[in-house]
Amino acid sequence: xxxxxxxxxxxxxxxxxxxxxxxxxxxxxxxxxxxxxxxxxxxxxxxxxxxxxxxxxxxxxxxxxxxxxxxxxxxxxxxxxxxxxxxxxxxxxxxxxxxxxxxxxxxxxxxxxxxxxxxxxxxxxxxxxxxxxxxxxxxxxxxxxxxxxxxxxxxxxxxxxxxxxxxxxxxxxxxxxxxxxxxxxxxxxxxxxxxxxxxxxxxxxxxxxxxxxxxxxxxxxxxxxxxxxxxxxxxxxxxxxxxxxxxxxxxxxxxxxxxxxxxxxxxxxxxxxxxxxxxxxxxxxxxxxxxxxxxxxxxxxxxxxxxxxxxxxxxxxxxxxxxxxxxxxxxxxxxxxxxxxxxxxxxxxxxxxxxxxxxxxxxxxxxxxxxxxxxxxxxxxxxxxxxxxxxxxxxxxxxxxxxxxxxxxxxxxxxxxxxxxxxxxxxxxxxxxxxxxxxxxxxxxxxxxxxxxxxxxx
Length: 458
Prior knowledge:
By secondary structure, the chain is of the alpha/beta class. The chain has 15 helices and 17 strands.
């Protein structure tokens, strides 16, 4: 049965191409939502960019007909702008007639009463709007198109029991995926398997899926900028970081799991020592509780520093390990002899001025092609799926992307996304099947016993 879907503004901002996701159904845009888009189009950051995208897409569709009468869409449905029911006479008197949300609810209720032969459904990502719609007897749904079930989210590894003899074969040319137990389920490129023997206690090993086989790890046992993995999951992450065949890597983990410090250690070594990449680009979606970054004083780098403090801390901590490993020889030279007093601000400033380190927000990435660079996207759970895809299209030749974050709801400040619809879980799910991609979830907290209690036990 064909349905009417009335679209709230926040859905349009979440996915600027929402209109192509409703199959043969009718999409209805209340006129007040266009007013809201018009007010948002000059906003800084993700909201303004997505608002402009929606308006541009609607302008393209408008060329095919009259939006007031309805225009057919490739999916078989149609889209129209609704100009009726803009007053709130059909709503309870306690509802403020000046609020746009209430005007949208009025439109939904009016269409439902006029077109009783088919269901009319409000689509919104606003919880307050959802509660009010329920109270008014209006059918309401979340925008489910790009939602990923976090319960089934790809972890990047699994545990498997095998005979010891078969485990040993991994080191003699690899184990064919076809020889593994049927309950293995789907296996993806660069997925890890933690093998345990069921006939010899303590016999276990870790392998990686490549070209239809499970093969031994290649990049274990080495320090990376003075840092060595502290657990099995970190070992897997470091394997994917060092693997030159992996062009996209996502790392999910809570506070203290090591996702940032592992990535920065690899970045410093691969750029400053091994010349694997030309530069490090650190990108962060700025989602402030109050004013946007444009309201802060200073140039871009001064504005960004509060949001980039995790990277400053990681670099500062890494230098302790690096100095112990190398006995400070390199840094004596860089800092004019004697025992160096490392200053992270001076270090980052020096390499930023040389163009070797860049720190950016998404606002400054559009239109760029990033070649021969290591791009670290931190707090990627704050991005929308559309923005995550847009970011990856910036990849030029020889570039590696790292998406880091924690997709749990208590780590998301962006009202446009939640734990199931953000850009991080979207890319984890969509990118897992390719030979040049990898993913790992870090579940163990290694920062300190106190951090572990706070993360896991509170």
